[in-house]
Amino acid sequence: MKKIRIGSLSDFPKDKMKEVRAEGKEILVANVDGKLFAINNICTHEECELHEGSLKGNVVTCPCHYSQFDITSGKVVQNPVTGQEIDPEIVYEIVLEENDVFVILD
Fold first, then answer.
1. Domains: count for the chain
2. What domain range is 81 assigned to?
3. Is the separation of the CB atoms in 80 and 86 below 8 Å?
4. How far apart are CA 73 and CA 88, in angstroms?
5. What is the pLDDT of residues 4-20, one digit of tens each?
6. What radius of gyration, in Å, describes the C-alpha atoms of the chain?
7. pTM exceeds 0.85
8. What is the pLDDT of residues 46-79, one digit of tens each?
């Protein structure tokens, strides 16, 4: 496992999400009520970038076909409007050290 620095705590404002890249992976980091969570940034439906969607509470909505994922678990909350069942998102562990934010990659 690798621990990769992805920024400072101040880079991730409360109730906002941001795309980061680490070791060739596109990762979506969201600050939900002051706690950071990370999932794969690419929707499992049609490969749209989730960071371009919206975040409401712990649910991120894909901008393309409105798939929804729980940012805390990667689980599908709602399948896309096409009705197709989709896979959950990969979840990444976030580690805080002082004001530095790291993501753990396999």
1. 1
2. 2-105
3. yes
4. 9
5. 999 999 999 999 999 99
6. 13
7. yes
8. 889 999 999 999 999 999 999 999 999 999 999 9
